[in-house]
Amino acid sequence: MRASMAPGVVVAVLLAVAPAGAQQRDTVGFPPARADALSGLYVLEDGRLVHVTDLRDQMGEPALSATEFASGRARALFPKKDGWFDAGNAWFRWDSIQYRVRFDETEHPVRALTWEEGGSTLSGTRAPLVEREVSIRSGDVVLAGTLVLPPGPGPHPALVMVPGSGPETRRIPRQVGDLLAYNGIAVLVTDKRGTGGSTGEWNGLSHADWAGDVEAHLDFLGAQPEIDASRIGLWGNSEGGYVVPVVAARRPDVRFLVCRVCAALPQSEVVPDIERGTRQRRGMPEFEVAAAVEMVERMIRYALTRTAYDSLAAHFESGAERPWRASFPVRQLPAADARYWDVYRENLVVDPRDHYARLRIPTLVVLGEADDRLLIGRRRAEYERLAESGVDLTLWVIPEASHGLMLGPGNALGYPPGLHERLMAWVKERAGVR
Asked: Cα dihedral angle (343, 347, 348, 350), rounded to 10 degrees?
């Protein structure tokens, strides 16, 4: 169970959008080590930057996706028996094959690939980034990660990447992190507590402990000779948006902040919307959606007031054989006196607006207009009020974009063209990269 029950990364719904029959008879599985070797940022000979990302944290097994940053095109890569990977005409679709990729797997990690599309063949090489495996102590927890450095001499400006909810490792943050490093900004990505090589437990992680981990990341970065300690920023994603403004408001060494699809309101006001939007997107009948939302609201009420536990438990048990319970994030209701409720309450009452209001650094917030988790109406207004109050806050609302900042049903159309270039330009200017 997740103490916050907060928004997760959008790729968690990939399986739901994959079409029937997607596993073609000549498609093969591949081991995790191979996925690790293939993942990374590549430069095609026509200048395109392509990131090959392993989605296993969300899919449960290795699954590769290729994102072309300039055009925004994102495609799943389906491994074939002949060694090639096929990419369809939309994300995780097989309707027609648009291009094929073959990796030169004589080296680990892979250094080169061949890209076939529209009758043309292009070569590609791995971007010349420098990677250093790191271990960072945060209290009694050790966090494993990677420091990704730009090519060339330092010291470099740097960003700490803070992920969203759930058991997320460094894999998903590397997609944008590698692009940042290619653009001259060092990036620190770590496995969340209890995932990958990190010790501890992500399940039930309080935002206060999470903020402590982020502060440990900042302390580590500031001590590295390759890093310019006067140019360090934070990048928060989704639920990480409840952590990064808190840290930025109390750390003078944070010089800029990016918050991607982050809420402006306390979780007590956000979580019911997330539960409703997620289930409606899956096509669940409205009476089942209503039952799930009611369960969330009862849990919030109990965490805040410690009243009506018996009716909360009765509602939970009444759904034992119903669809809403089968996919509910809490599998077993915690006991009335469980520590879970203390942590949940701590997370529910934090109001991000209080911390944004204390910031005196450039801050960028990026929201999706069609986000069915963080409904744009009230969120936009809250951020606009903060900007009007004097906070150096820039708000981008991406038209028709989802919680993952992608377009189309099931995110099938990929990212808006130019979105990543725009993000890089904003960060580079604040980090002093020319």
From this structure: 140
DSSP one-letter code for 414: B
Instruction: Say what angle helices 207-222 and 339-349 make with each other, to 10 degrees.
Output: 70
Entry pTM:
0.90
Q: CA-to-CA distance for 431 and 289, rounded, in angstroms?
A: 44
Does the pLDDT value for residue 18 go beyond 50? no
Judge whether 27 and 78 are in contact, CB under 8 Å.
yes
List pLDDT tens digits, range 387-398: 999 999 999 999
The whole-number average pLDDT for the span 206-230 is 97
Neighbours of 277 (CB within 10 A): 18
Beta bridge partners of 141: 138
Helix axes 267-281, 339-349, angle to 10 degrees: 100
- Report phi then psi at 110, rounded to 5: -60, 140
Q: What is the mean pLDDT of residues 105-130?
A: 96
What is the per-residue pLDDT across 326-357, written as a single tens digit (0 to 9) for each?
989 888 999 999 999 999 999 999 999 999 99
Q: Are 44 and 66 in contact (CB under 8 A)?
A: no
For the chain, the distance separating the N- and C-terminal CA atoms, rounded to the nearest angstrom, is 45
Q: Is the dihedral of CA 421, 427, 430, 434 positive or negative?
A: negative
Phi, psi of 104, rounded to the nearest 5 degrees: -80, 100
Cβ count within 10 A of residue 50 = 21
Cα 311 to Cα 303: distance, rounded to the nearest angstrom: 14
Q: For residue 125, what is the enclosing H or E element?
A: strand 120-126
Reading the block at residue 219, the tokens are 């302390």
Which pLDDT score is estimated for 166?
87
Separate counts of helices (H) and strands (E) for the chain:
14, 16
> Which residue type sits at 307?
T
Tokens of 423: 């993000």
